[in-house]
Design goal:
Elements lengths: L13 E2 L5 E5 L14 E2 L5 E5 L15 H14 L1
Parallel strand pairs: 1-3, 2-4
Length: about 80
């Protein structure tokens, strides 16, 4: 698996309203959560775990939805740079 999300014809962005925890574990071929330029929002996300994903380089090319998510997104991008 090279990416988690591959959306088609998404116009305004993708919102995971109820996602509280995201765990990416032991995914040696994973390169990104999404390789497209989609805007993601995670209003309920409180915990992110990335373990044993040596090929991941970016989360997504899109923008985040608000300041808190932007801080989270920036921190996540730094993990993969």
């Amino acid at each position: 698996m090279k990416e988690i999300w591959h959306g088609d014809d998404v116009k305004d962005g993708i919102v995971f309203t109820k996602l509280e925890s995201l765990q990416l574990k032991v995914l040696p071929k994973l390169e990104s959560f999404c390789s497209g330029n989609y805007n993601f929002e995670f209003p309920s996300l409180a915990d992110v775990t990335v373990m044993e994903c040596p090929s991941i380089r970016t989360f997504s090319e899109g923008e985040s939805g608000d300041d808190a998510e932007e801080d989270w997104s920036d921190a996540l991008h730094m993990l993969f740079d």
